[in-house]
Amino acid sequence: MTDKRSTFPLPLSSVTGNGNQPGSKPGIYAPAKVATPQTATRNAAHTAVIQPYSAPVRAASPSKSHSQAMARAQPAPIASPRPDLMVSDAIRRAMVARVAKQGVQDSMVLGALEAVPRHRFIDEALSAQAYIDASLPIGHSQTISQPYIVGRMIEVMRNGGKLGRVLEIGTGCGYQAAVLSCLAQDVYSIERIKPLHELAKNNLRPMRIPNLRLHYGDGMLGLPQAAPFDGIILAAAGLEVPQALLDQLAIGARLVAPVGERVQHLQLITRIGKAEWTTETLEGCHFVPLRSGTI
Ligand code: SAH
C-alpha cells in the first residue's frame, strides 16, 4: 500500500523540539574504520519456523501526525550524490532478510528496519558497512547496535501488540529510536553523553519524526514526567535493571534489557501488578555498559 522507502524522511516538524535547523552529519566524531565484532550473538529462534518476510511498513498505532507524515512522504527520499548510497534500499532489504532469517518474525518490526536508513546514523567512513549485521563505533567508546538485536528487542517488547508510549535508555546515534518511532505512538529516548545526544539530534532532524523526543540525562532514573510507559528498552547493560525503570512501566507492560557484565543476557521483565514483576532470561548478548550520571 505504501512505498516502504517513503517513510523517511518524514516531512513534518523537528524531532527534538530544540530547534529546526536543517541537519547534516556533524562530523564531530572520528570512529575507527572497522566494524566491531558483534553484539548479540545467537538468537533465540534457531528452533523457530521462519515465515517468509513480506514487508508492510506502517506504524502499529501511529499518532495522527505520524501517519499524515507517512502519507505525505516523498517516494525517493534518500537522495544522495554518493553512488554507494544509491543502492542502499536494496542493501537494506537484504539486511532485513538476514535479520528475519536469524529469527525476528514480527513483520511490523522488519518493516520498520527496512524503513530507517541506517547509513544516515553512522560516519561516512563506515557507510560501506552500514548494512552488515554488526554494531559499529559511533564515538565516545559507544556503538550503534547490531540490526538483529535492535529488531529482536523491539519484537520482544512489542509482543505483537500496539505500543503507545515507549522509553529507550541509551539514544546513542538515534538509530533504534528512529526504528521505534515507526512502531510506537510516542517515543522518548535518553542519552547520558552530551555529544552523542547532539549527534542523535543532528542525525534525526532531517527525518522530521514528530513522535520522537530526545532527552539528555541519566536514563537510570527514567523519565518520571512521561511515565508510565507501555514499553522500555535499555540499549546498555547493567548488573540489574534500575528499580526506577521498573516503577515507570505500566501494569502489563514489558521492559527488555541486557543484563550482566562480561556475560550478558537479554532480560524480559513484565510488570504484572503494582509491586509485582516477572523476569524471563533470553539469549546471550553483548552491549556497552549502563553507567550512571551524565557527561
Ligand atoms: N540505541 C543505540 C545504541 C547506543 S549504545 C542505537 O540505536 O544503536 C548505548 C548508549 O547507552 C550509549 O550511547 C551510552 O552512552 C548510553 N548509556 C549508557 N548508560 C546510560 C544511562 N544511564 N542513561 C542514558 N544513556 C546511557
Low-confidence stretches: 1-84
Oligomer: single chain
Please provide the count of β strands. Answer: 9
Largest sheet: 7 strands, mixed
Measured as a percent range, the helix fraction is: 10-25%
Which small-molecule species are bound to the chains here? S-adenosyl-L-homocysteine
Give the overall form: globular
Strand order of the largest sheet: 5-4-3-6-7-8-9
Number of helices: 8
Residues in β-strands, percent: 15-25%
- Please state the structural category: alpha/beta
User: How do the SSEs run, as a string of H and E?
Assistant: HHHHEEHEHEHEEHEEE
Query: What is the distance, rounded to the nearest whole angstrom, between the alpha carbons of the first and last residues?
Result: 44 Å
Task: Give the overall pLDDT as a whole number.
Answer: 79
Radius of gyration: 17 Å
